[in-house]
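hey so i finally got around to running both of the ones u sent me last week. sorry it took forever, my laptop kept dying halfway thru and i had to restart like 3 times lol. anyway pasting them below in the order u listed, first the sequence line then the structure token line for each. didnt double check formatting much so if smth looks off just lmk and ill redo it

first one:
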Amino acid sequence: MSEQTPSPDEKRRDAAPFPDPGDLLVSALLLAGAGYLYYLTTQFEEPSALLGENVGPADFPRLVIYFVAILAIILPFESRLQPERWQKIWEGRHKPVSTLTWISIGFLVVVSLAAPYLGTIITMVLVSLLLPLVWGERRIGLVVTFAVLFTLAVTWVFNVILKVYFEPGIFGVTAKLIPFF
């Protein structure tokens, strides 16, 4: 009985390439995007000295950019960092993107476009309430509790600790409307 020679695709799934060419491309695109966004943060106006030595307008975006860059650098080495999961990762790359993913993306784009009008706090509440429901969570009490506690926690960290104040939007919702702020 003769053995069948594996197809190139089967060989590729068995032995993860190092580094994966597809991951290298995605990593390069993410790093290029991060570099461009970092450049944009250098164009922000410096706040007045009267506002004190708090977190500057470029600090938070740069922090997010740093994390994206670090993850992009790690991405091509994923096959070596988790060799036991490589087969599942490889198979998952050939599946189409689910409809739920596209719905989530569309929802987040619409909410992001509406955020300047709604204000930061209302936007956080909407995303915290509606996104779990879109994903199928049916325990309404848990979702409402999460939305309220998450919004309060984020608002407290930014307003009280970091002294960064959110946009109130057209409804004028600010942390000052929350009793313990």
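and the second one:
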Amino acid sequence: MAPTFRAGDRLLVRSGGRAIRPGDVVVVAAMNGRPEIVKRVYSMGPNPTRPDNPVDVRGDNPEHSTDSRTFGSIPRSSIVGRVVRRY
């Protein structure tokens, strides 16, 4: 997620709370043998509270990011939580 976050940054992640919406930075659960990833919500399907609602996530550095342009939309249930602070 460079340039927004750098290697070694610690993130405070909140699960629950307000609904996820485009522009939020989220943690996506591990998938296909990869660790959890941090991405920005780009767009969402029509039912944002449903667990199977499709969500497109993107990295802040498009030329060096593996995101929904590579692996497609993810279900809402794959989002672990929303990043609320970096420290």
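quick thing i noticed on the 2nd:
The chain has a mean pLDDT of 91.
anyway thats it, ttyl
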